């Protein structure tokens, strides 16, 4: 980055902790090779001038074919490959949304109950965010 360039939203990657019925959606990456097979909170890069919450909705539509909305920011941000940082929002499906399906970047999706949340091999950088979100899952009825 050019010295003196202000940090903009361009450097933010948004991840979605998509919650539904007390379960968290995990997505297994199919690319790039060094991340393939690991599980993540789906999302992607915020574009210049875009609000992170809008980027999240756009990325979930592109990658999973769903209509979702951001609910609240999970406190904290976590470094990725420079200059990117990961920020996470909880999110929910809008009424009438199609069910998520892996359209790009992923080859498998899994809804995790609280007792199963650590059964998938999360990307290292996503682990602290998943740890933050896990107390928000409940085993109760939807
Ligand atoms: N990324 C990540 N954790 C996430 C989402 C994305 O570490 N929950 C990383 C993977 C890529 C970069 O952010 O290096 C951009 O993501 P994408 O390729 O999905 O746009």
Key structural traits:
142 residues, alpha+beta, Nucleoside Triphosphate Pyrophosphohydrolase, 7-stranded mixed β-sheet, 2 helices, 14% helix, globular, binds 2'-deoxycytidine-5'-monophosphate, mutator protein, Nudix_hydrolase, 8-oxo-dGTP diphosphatase, magnesium
TL;DR of this structure?
The chain is of the alpha+beta class.
What does this structure look like?
This protein is an alpha+beta fold and 142 residues long. Helix content is 14%, strand content 35%. Strands 1, 2, 3, 4, 5, 6 and 7 form a 7-stranded mixed beta sheet that branches. A hairpin with a 2-residue loop joins strand 1 and strand 2. It is globular, with a radius of gyration of 15 Å. The protein binds 2'-deoxycytidine-5'-monophosphate (DCM).
Give the N-to-C terminal Cα separation. 46 Å
Percent helix range: 10-25%
Please give the CATH class: Alpha Beta
CATH architecture level-2 label: Alpha-Beta Complex
Name the overall outline: globular
Number of helices: 2
Q: How many domains, as an integer? A: 1
Largest sheet: 7 strands, mixed
What would you give as the CATH superfamily? Nucleoside Triphosphate Pyrophosphohydrolase
Order of helices and strands: EEEEHEEEH
Q: Which runs of at least 5 residues are low in confidence (pLDDT < 50)?
A: none
Write down the CATH topology. Nucleoside Triphosphate Pyrophosphohydrolase
- Mean pLDDT, to the nearest integer, reads 92
Domain Nudix hydrolase: 9-139
Cofactor: Mg(2+)
Organism: Streptomyces incarnatus
Keywords: DNA damage, DNA repair, DNA replication, Hydrolase, Magnesium, Metal-binding, Mutator protein
